[in-house]
Design brief:
The chain is an alpha/beta fold. The protein has helices at 15-25, 35-38, 41-50, 61-64, 80-88, 120-130, 148-154; strands at residues 5-9, 29-33, 56-59, 73-77, 96-100, 109-113, 116-119, 135-137, 146-147.
Amino acid sequence: MAGAHVRIDNRLIHGQVTVAWTRRLGVRRLLVCNDDVAADELQQVLLPQAARGLPTAVLSVAATLTVPLDGDVMIIAKDPEDAFRLVEGGLRPGVVNVGNVAPRPGTAYTMVTRSIAVTADEAGGYRKLAAGVPLVTQLMPQDKPAEFVPLLDRKGL
């Protein structure tokens, strides 16, 4: 299963995604991927409205893996674990972009960039992910992508 653009961003659908990223990548459809969000009826209604007319589905990880994908789809994984599970389930994106991962209350984390918090467990998951697919961080399309694993190395993760 290949072709989709994958971004990890706990903010889900917002202006950077609906304006900047969709235009740059030629995205014509959004898939929000997270089990908890998919089970939340309010988010099922609100997230597609935030997408500014772009067809949007809010799906569990398992359901996302059943959707036929091509290059005009962007999958927005809420948490790193969602992206890890997608790749373990057979998704082979050209690249996974770690966009924004805010610190979660009650976790021991390290800020890898100004917008990405990583726990020790997540660092291991990112390394495993990077062994199978290219892993970068790029907040905005005009920013230069940075390889993600060297950022973990610099922070001792």
